[in-house]
Design goal:
- The chain is mainly α.
- It has one domain (27-103): Cytochrome Bc1 Complex, Chain D, domain 2, CATH 1.10.760.
- Helices cover 62% and strands 0% of the residues.
- The chain has six helices and no strands.
- Helix 2 (27-36) crosses helix 5 (82-94) and helix 3 packs antiparallel against helix 5 (82-94).
- The radius of gyration is 18 Å and the shape is elongated.
- The protein binds heme C.
- InterPro entries: Cyt_c-like_dom_sf (IPR036909).
- Keywords: Signal.
- Residues 1-23 form the signal peptide.
- It comes from Desulfuromonas thiophila.
- This is Cytochrome c.
């Protein structure tokens, strides 16, 4: 095999894998779920306070989503798939306390 062909194949593999990784969790879907699902309660004068995404670090949001629902959230979580919870986690992490600092605009 010549070098150019190998390089092309590696490039295709990298592009394919990067695409897969991005498809795994989609913050845009998470954003929509936050608006459509979470904000049914988490809104001004709602059943719960508005959520402050930057009140927690990425690690704290991971813990929140990985540790299962609190009793108030049991019926909410039941309607969400593992994939949807992953999208939510990804979106919340995007606006977490420490993510903004990494971008230099916190
Ligand atoms: C049925 C109403 C309801 C829905 C829908 C709901 N929550 Fe809540 N949530 C509550 C209540 C009530 C509390 C306060 C009591 C508690 O902590 O369990 C709360 C508390 C929280 C807290 C802790 C308080 C804080 O501000 O840090 C977080 C985080 C949270 N919710 C995230 C979510 C997320 C994410 C979703 C969407 C996937 C969601 N909630 C959807 C009712 C709801």
């Amino acid at each position: 095999m010549n070098k150019a062909l190998v390089t092309a194949m590696v490039l295709i593999a990298v592009i394919f894998l990067a695409g897969q990784a991005m498809a795994a969790a989609d913050w845009r879907k998470g954003k929509k779920l936050h608006r459509d699902v979470c904000m049914q309660c988490h809104k001004s004068r709602g059943a719960a306070d508005r959520l402050q995404l930057n009140a927690r670090t990425k690690a704290q949001w991971s813990e929140f989503f990985q540790s299962g629902p609190t009793s108030a959230h049991q019926p909410v979580w039941q309607k969400l798939s593992t994939e949807q919870l992953g999208d939510l986690e990804f979106y919340f992490q995007k606006y977490a306390k420490d993510d903004k600092q990494l971008l230099g605009c916190g």
